[in-house]
Amino acid sequence: MKRIIALGYIIAIVGCSSSLQGQAHIPYLVKQGAATQLRVADKPFLMLGGELGNSTASALPELDTVFAKLQQMNLNTVLTPAYWELIEPEEGKFDFTSIDAAIHAARTHNLKIVFLWFGSWKNSMSCYAPAWVKENYKKYPRAVTESGKPLEIMSAFHRNNLEADKHAFVQFMKHLAATDNEQQTVIMVQVENEIGMLDSAREYTPEANKWFNAEAPGQLMDYLLKNKKSLRPQLLRQWGANGFKTQGNWTSIFGEGLETEEIFMAWHYGLYVQEIAQSGKQVYPLPMYLNAALNSRGRKAGQYPSAGPLAHLLDIWRVAAPAIDFLSPDIYDPGFEDWLAQYHVNGNPLFIPEIQLQEANAIRALYAFGAHDAMGFSPFSIEDVADPEKYPLTHSYRMLQQLSPLLTEIQGKGKTNGILLNGETKEKVISRGNYTFTFTHYSSLPWEKNKDTASWSETGAILIQLSEKEFIVAGSGVVVTFDNIWKDGTVTGISSIDEIEWKDGKMIPLRRLNGDQDHQGRHLRIPVGEWNIQQVKLYDYK
Ligand code: DGJ
Questions:
Q1: Residues 161-178: what's their mean pLDDT?
Q2: Would the CB of 88 count as within 6 Å of ligand 1?
Q3: Cβ-Cβ contacts under 8 Å for 167 (sequence gap 6 or more)
């Protein structure tokens, strides 16, 4: 049975749709097998996205040109900021010109929008708070570090801050409900941007200190007890190291130190964001998520943006902010595969709202959908691509667009794999049913001239199982050979390979790939720089 996520909001969704008589529900999340799907107009939707650079969406006359470029790159979704400072330039006076302009440009170019609420926090800081908030720091207090240094970070412990942000966010969501309920161009909302405390692992305002010395909340302790078996390992270790206590203040439960300060701070960021998201969903219940600046390079809490929606804090965020549907990584550091695995965990679906703009993203997108049932993928500052026609992502998004109906039908059912190869990892073996697939980097072919592995580009593919002996390989720069698991002398051969395209849910053969193109029946291959979808049928002989 499919289940709508965020059960508390079903009523609101149903309420919306019944008043519109026969019109599709507004976008919502549903479980399908192991995956969580975004449904748009009641159909599963893979976000082939890109995020705009921070200031691009404020140049309204340029939006049309920018969005036309995104359409040319085969995007179906643009992630674009909703700037609090522009929306509420004077306290209580709202101006949605920038929002309407983005929606208009998106509709013109057949794009969906994920709005990024640049509210109290953007990359830890509060630079998008309107001037009337920033300048009145007595009314809207700042966070301070352990040494008492005030930061341009709105304190998470002060009601005035929360109320001001919440009020603006609710007006924003009301505006979307009023103007976009029918066409549903806006499909999701990111609440705040890369929340995280800097310089200290937690705030040191008197209010924050008071809460830090208070009892840890019973709601959190109940959750930890109930979910002990599935807690993120770091949290479990820390709790266990202090004897799995269920009562006491934060340090008596989690120990002295930066890690405990970070847990405490995450809890309070969570409560703040929960109230904002919940209030927004009450007026227009779109799916809502958070994005995280990752804690990499061995930095300690306070050195990286701490206490944000980080993978090791998943449990804390979940219980503090249930109105947030999932947490997402912004990937600017090495370790792509590892970050994905850290976020696609315990029912948290994978959505990559930001990844550094680079050509390898074309392959990485295929990997994310193939290996992790991703909901979407979105390189940052996507409008900076110089030549959309030649850009690799344009080609992999073209393939993903074609494959979307198939992928969404089988999502969560364990029928896909993602394969990434480079000069170091030249080969990967995938097992699927009775068959093994050896994916090799195209440059490994004996007749390929470039032997300088350090210069090999990232290549790879998505592998999709259609039936027992039929598979699809879509990608670039791979050679695939086939074997079986029987070990009884049976040989697996290629019955046929076709280059195909998917159109209107149907597979259309374009070319029979045989002879030189499959090395006389020995392998399937897609050269580096070429992007295509191939269907292979296998057979066995003795
Ligand atoms: C991550 C942030 O979320 C983006 O808004 C942007 O600042 C990029 N980092 C880096 O430019």
A1: 98
A2: no
A3: none
Of the candidates 531, 499, 503, the residue with the CA atom closest to the CA atom of residue 390: 531
pLDDT tens by residue, 371-394: 999 999 999 999 999 999 999 999
Q: Angle of helix 361-372 relative to helix 336-343, nearest 10 degrees?
A: 30
Give the mean pLDDT of the chain. Answer: 95
Counting residues of the chain whose pLDDT is more than 90, the rounded percentage is 94
pLDDT at 505: 79
Among candidate residues 61, 181, 186, the one with its CA nearest the CA of residue 114: 186
Q: Which tens digits make up the pLDDT trace of 48-77?
A: 999 999 999 999 999 999 999 999 999 999
- 10 pLDDT above the threshold of 70: no
**CA of residue 376 to ligand 1 center, whole Å:** 18
Pocket test for ligand 1, best of 118, 125, 126, 193 (most atoms within 8 A of CB): 193
Query: Domains in the chain, ordered, with CATH?
Result: 6-410 (3.20.20.80), 416-541 (2.60.220.20)
**Digit-coded pLDDT (tens) for 469-490:** 999 999 999 999 999 999 999 9
Q: How many residues does the chain have?
A: 542
CA 381–ligand 1 middle distance (angstroms): 9
Which residue lies with its CA nearest to atom 8 of ligand 1? 380
Q: Which two tokens stand for residue 40?
A: 């748009």
Greatest Cα-to-Cα distance within the chain, rounded to the nearest angstrom: 82
Q: For residue 262, how far is its CA from the centre of ligand 1 (angstroms)?
A: 22
CA of 9 to the centre of ligand 1 (A): 31
Q: From the CB of 380, is ligand 1 less than 6 Å away?
A: yes
pLDDT value of residue 296: 86
What is the spatial order of strands in the sheet that 376-377 belongs to?
A: 351-352, 376-377, 47-51, 77-83, 112-122, 186-193, 288-293, 326-331, 354-355
Residue 166: partners with Cβ closer than 8 Å, 6 or more residues away: 275, 276, 279
Q: Which residue has the tokens 């943006």?
A: 305
Residue carrying the six token digits 């790939």 = 513
Closest ligand 1 atom to the C-alpha of 194? 3
CA separation for the pair 224, 217 (Å, rounded): 11
Distance 150 CA to ligand 1 centre (A): 23
Q: Is the pLDDT of residue 5 over 60?
A: no
